[in-house]
Specification:
Shape: globular
Strand content: 15-25%
Number of domains: 2
Number of strands: 15
Strand order of the largest sheet: 4-5-6
Helix content: under 10%
Oligomer: single chain
C-alpha cells in the first residue's frame, strides 16, 4: 500500500506541475485599443480601451496634425504603436487606421485620415482628460467633434486655394485665412453648382458622361456634426442615383481634387463663383 502511494505521488506532482505550466502558457487577453461606444444623442463614436472618447479636429483638413503648443495640452494626441486588427472593437477595420507625425515629433493615430485626440479641459487649474463615457468636447469652438465611423458630412477648416494657385478668403476675395466648409467623411471637399435650383441637379447628364468632372456626392445617409442642423439635409434622385443636398443645393466633389484631403481647387473652375465650396451659412437654393 505504501509502495503504491509512493509511486503515485510523483505522478500527482507531475500532473499538477503540468497543469500549472499550461495555465502559465495561456496568452493574456488582447486589449481593444479602439472600440465603438454609443451615445443617445451622438450615436456611434470611437473611444480608447478605457472608454474615453476620441475626437476629430476640423483644422486637420489636410490630414496632418494642426494642434500644436498649448492646443496639445487641451487635446492630447492618441497613439497606439503597431495597432493590429485584433486590437479593434467590432465594426472597425484596420484599413481605416494609420498614423502621422506632429511637428513636435510625436506620433498620432489617424482614422479615415483624421488624427485622433482626447479632450483634457482645465479642472482646478490642471488639464485633466475627461472621464470615460463623456463627450463634452463635442462642438468645442465649432471645430472639435467626436470621431464617428459613419459621418456623411464633416467640417474642414482650412485655406481655399483655386486652380489658379491663388489663395482666397471665405468671401472669395484674394488673401489668406481659414474657411469652415463641408467635406465627406474622408475630408474631400464638397461643392454646389451656381445654376442648380432647389433640389434640382442641372449639371449631370443622364449618361453620367460628365460625372468625372463634377461627381455627384452619391449618398442619402445624413450623419453630421452636432453643430449642423440635420433637417437642412436631404437627397434627390439623379437618373437612378441618390445625391445628398444641403438647403436644397445638390452636393458634388471635383474630379481635379482627385479626392485629396485639403484640395479645393474647384472653387475657381472654370471661374470664381460657379462652383463654390459649401458652408453652413450658404443661402437656401431658389425654387
Amino acid at each position: 500500500m505504501l509502495l503504491s502511494l509512493g509511486l503515485a505521488l510523483p505522478f500527482i506532482y507531475l500532473n499538477v506541475s503540468c497543469n500549472k505550466d499550461n495555465n502559465n502558457n495561456n496568452p493574456p487577453p488582447v486589449v481593444q485599443q479602439v472600440q465603438l461606444k454609443t451615445s443617445a444623442t451622438l450615436g456611434s463614436y470611437l473611444s480608447d480601451k478605457d472608454g474615453r472618447t476620441l475626437y476629430f479636429f476640423a483644422n486637420d483638413f489636410n490630414g496632418q496634425n494642426n494642434c500644436a503648443g498649448q492646443c496639445e495640452a487641451f487635446w492630447p494626441y492618441y497613439y497606439v504603436p503597431n495597432l493590429a486588427a485584433n486590437q479593434l472593437g467590432a465594426g472597425l477595420k484596420i484599413s481605416d487606421f494609420d498614423s502621422v507625425t506632429a511637428v513636435n515629433g510625436k506620433k498620432q493615430l489617424t482614422y479615415k485620415g483624421w488624427p485622433l485626440y482626447h479632450y483634457a479641459p482645465m479642472v482646478n487649474g490642471t488639464n485633466t482628460t475627461e472621464a470615460p463615457g463623456l463627450t463634452s468636447g463635442e462642438g468645442v469652438q465649432g471645430t472639435w467633434f467626436v470621431a464617428k465611423p459613419d459621418y456623411s458630412i464633416m467640417l474642414s477648416n482650412g485655406q481655399l486655394t483655386g486652380t489658379d494657385g491663388k489663395n482666397y478668403k471665405s468671401d472669395y476675395t484674394e488673401g489668406t485665412g481659414k474657411t469652415l466648409y463641408f467635406t465627406d467623411s474622408a475630408g474631400v471637399t464638397l461643392y454646389s453648382f451656381k445654376f442648380d435650383k432647389q433640389n434640382k441637379n442641372n449639371y449631370t447628364q443622364s449618361t453620367f458622361a460628365n460625372n468625372g468632372t463634377w461627381p455627384i456626392y452619391e449618398t442619402d445617409k445624413i450623419v453630421v456634426p452636432s453643430t449642423l442642423d440635420k433637417s437642412l439635409f436631404g437627397s434627390i434622385d439623379v437618373f437612378g442615383r441618390k445625391q445628398l443636398t444641403y438647403k436644397g443645393w445638390p452636393l458634388y466633389t471635383f474630379g481635379q481634387d482627385a479626392r485629396v484631403r485639403g484640395a479645393n481647387k474647384g472653387m475657381t473652375f472654370p471661374s470664381l463663383g460657379i462652383w463654390p465650396v459649401v458652408t453652413k451659412d450658404v443661402a437656401t437654393a431658389t425654387p
